[in-house]
Specification:
Helix content: 40-55%
Oligomer: single chain
Radius of gyration: 36 Å
Strand order of the largest sheet: 2-3-1-7-8
InterPro entries: DALR_anticod-bd, Gly-tRNA-synth_bsu, Gly-tRNA-synth_heterodimer
Domain DALR anticodon binding: 585-685
Protein name: Glycine--tRNA ligase beta subunit
Number of strands: 18
Largest sheet: 5 strands, antiparallel
Subcellular location: Cytoplasm
Subunit structure: Tetramer of two alpha and two beta subunits.
Length: 690
């Protein structure tokens, strides 16, 4: 037999940003315990609204099935005395299970014979188990700080007011957070504040919606808000800008969503739209409206928690509230426009970037110098890159960024445009922070690429240079993210840059502020990011390791990328494993030598037909692969070398490498060395061996 189980905890308004996490954690832990107890059930539904968390488990077993279990007792040697009478250890073990000693069995456990009790444990009723399961799920919720309320000693994230626990039509009686469970829920705080007496667990969502003006299902409420917002945006003549995080937060703030459209003075549109959008989203939880060109319109969409009889009054109230927010943004912007970027930058000499690495002004000078070098190597404008680097942090000293930290870089872009700086300089001030997160867009201008790379490389070398490298989960300067950003910018923008050389140049600029020896460690850190990046792309680890083994490949990310993709394609060929094994064999032979083999192959010492043929093919492969290597066409090189499989196999089948004649032996070792070097021009193929 099975029934639906509903448990709902009613509270004061829960923290909106934490609501989805709390709901998911509650359901996961509660269901985990049901599953561990062996209780079969159907679909599980989670409900999360501002004033409630609930779980509905469909078709839950009414009791656990009986279980046959074995309990291991004392060793037989300790269970009986010399006369064969049961000891207290045996009697106590049996009594603890409601048995007598003669009802116990014996079993060889591999470590001696022990007493074994085989019993049938009767399953418990679900109503007996659920209270403890739910209490534990509540206790385990990820709540950083719990609170008390009134004179109660219990603690929770917010004051709790009611508790519903229904198994079918039966109340599951228990106490939690000083609340006694029952069948009484409550509707919307304003539309339907009265009690709702639930008859059955399964009617929960429908009764709350129809009688209580509450959409309890978080995902359904979220979909309704998104749909209403999109419609409102179209009716306003544009497109609603829906920030996913804001959508989640708004969903957690309302029980009965109603989208309303308001407006603001067009004069505010002279302010950078990012600042206006930030003010509306962060402070008022409004959705903004954009026109067909992506420009902000003087409209906003707010999600009301009530269905007002006079929505115009609600809209007017929201318009009144947003006006001072936008006026503040306009005030900050106007003040910032009274200064040039260079004037804003003057104050950075008093702002410490890092105690040992100097001020932000010092960092800007280093960024400018390194960006100029990068721009020159990538075909950009080195003078513009230097200027953009020197001005890169100027907007950190602006009032706008002080009030809206999300405006860093963006404010610099607008100020640069306003004072007539070259367009690529303005773009670079924005692009310097890209990519901000995994999968984010990359800088598109050559100047922006140069400044972004210079900024990240300077930080990487500086922080490693003072011995504050990331450890475990600690990465206060986000060096892992910055390094992945560097690799992505170089690879995806096809930049022929030597990253190791740029690290050394950054270290030179930092001078005696750092321990230059730590640059090697920073480079090793970059190698680790190569591995993480390509593993995330699904590239097999042996493929990545085979390229990491080539030091020169690690210096140039674009070259590294070409090699990895070539080796990944080569690994799929049927010749790959045989050649990997041969390379491994060659590597082992050469590693045992006390001195390097000759640098040339003497044709007069070639005795066997197989070694003659392999020598001819190796020499030919060197000639054919040289132009391909210069072009970076590593896939073509490996396709060429794949043809060596048969002659390599034939060589090892018929030729004794370690011949008695030292001259012949050294000649054959020279051939193997040439063969291995051919593959090492791309990667250490021996590491592909399974």
């Amino acid at each position: 037999m099975s029934r639906d189980l509903l448990i709902e905890l009613g509270t004061e308004e829960l923290p909106p940003k934490a609501l989805p996490t709390l709901s998911a954690a509650l359901t996961e832990e509660f269901v985990r315990q049901l599953d561990e107890a062996g209780l079969q059930h159907g679909e599980v539904e989670s409900f999360a609204a501002p004033r409630r968390l609930a779980v509905l488990v469909r078709d839950l077993d009414e009791k656990q099935a009986d279980r046959d279990i074995e309990r291991q007792g004392p060793a037989v040697q300790a269970a009986f005395d010399a006369e064969g009478n049961p000891t207290k250890a045996a009697q106590g073990f049996a009594a603890s299970l409601g048995l007598t000693v003669d009802q116990l069995d014996r079993q060889d456990t591999g470590k001696g014979e022990r007493l074994i009790a085989r019993i049938t444990e009767e399953g418990k009723a679900t109503t007996e188990l659920v209270p403890a399961f739910f209490a534990q799920a509540i206790q385990k919720l990820p709540i950083p700080k719990r609170m008390r309320w009134g004179s109660r000693k219990v603690q929770f994230v917010r004051p709790a007011h009611w508790l519903v626990a229904l198994f079918g039509d039966e109340v599951v009686p228990f106490e939690l957070l000083d609340l006694q469970s029952g069948r009484t829920s409550y509707g919307h705080r304003f539309h339907a504040p009265g009690a709702i007496e639930l008859s059955q667990a399964g009617e929960y969502a429908g009764r709350l919606e129809n009688e209580g003006h509450v959409i309890a299902d978080f995902d359904r409420r979220k979909a309704m808000i998104e749909e209403q917002t999109i419609t409102a945006g179209k009716q306003a003549g544009g497109t609603a800008r829906i920030n996913p995080d804001l959508l989640d937060e708004v969903t957690a703030l309302v029980e009965w969503p109603v989208a309303l459209t308001g407006g603001f003075d067009e004069d505010f549109l002279r302010v950078p739209q990012e600042a206006l959008i930030s003010a509306m989203e962060e402070h008022q939880k409004y959705f903004s409206v954009l026109d067909a060109d992506g420009k902000l319109m003087p409209k906003f969409i707010t999600i009301s928690n009530i269905e007002s009889k006079d929505p115009a009054q609600v809209i007017a109230g929201n318009e009144k509230v947003i006006r001072p927010r936008l006026a503040d943004a306009a005030f900050f912007y106007d003040n910032d426009c009274k200064k040039t970027l260079a004037q804003h930058a003057e104050g950075l000499a008093q702002v410490v970037f890092q105690q040992q690495l100097g001020t932000v002004a010092d960092k800007c000078q280093r960024i400018g110098a390194l960006a100029a070098v990068i721009a020159e190597q990538t075909g950009g404008d080195s003078a513009h890159a230097r200027l953009a680097g020197e001005l890169s942090k100027a907007d950190l000293n602006s009032e706008m960024v002080y009030e809206f930290d999300t405006m860093q870089g963006i404010m610099g872009y607008y100020l640069a445009q306003r004072e007539g700086q070259p367009e690529d300089v303005a773009e670079a001030l924005y692009e310097q922070y890209l990519p901000r997160f995994a999968g984010d867009k990359l800088p598109q201008s050559k100047t922006g690429m140069a400044v972004s790379l210079a900024d990240k490389i300077d930080t990487l070398v500086g922080i490693f240079g003072i011995g504050q490298k990331p450890s475990g989960t600690k990465d206060p300067y986000a060096l892992r993210r910055a390094t992945l950003g560097v690799l992505r910018i170089i690879i995806e923008n096809q930049l022929e840059l030597d990253l190791r050389d740029l690290l050394d140049q950054a270290a030179t600029q930092l001078g005696d502020r750092i321990d230059a020896a730590q640059v090697d460690e920073a480079f090793d850190f970059i190698k680790g990011r190569y591995r993480a990046m390509y593993q995330e792309q699904g590239i097999a680890t042996p493929v990545i390791l085979s390229v990491l083994a080539i030091e020169d490949a690690c210096r140039k990310p674009l070259d590294f990328d070409r090699r990895v993709k070539a080796v990944a394609a080569f690994q799929q060929r049927e010749e790959a494993q045989a050649l990997a094994a041969a390379n491994k064999r060659v590597s082992n032979i050469l590693a045992k030598l006390e001195q390097a083999p000759p640098e040339e192959i003497d044709g007069a010492l070639l005795e066997d037909e197989a070694e003659q043929e392999l020598t001819n093919l190796v020499v030919a492969a060197y000639e054919q692969s040289e132009p391909l290597l210069e072009q970076g066409d590593y896939q073509a090189v490996l396709e060429l070398l794949a043809e060596l499989r048969a002659p390599v196999d034939a060589f090892f089948e018929s030729v004794m490498v370690m011949a008695e004649d030292p001259a012949v032996r050294d000649n054959r070792l020279a051939l193997l060395s040439f063969l291995r070097d051919l593959f090492l021009n791309v990667a250490d193929i021996s590491l592909l061996q399974e």
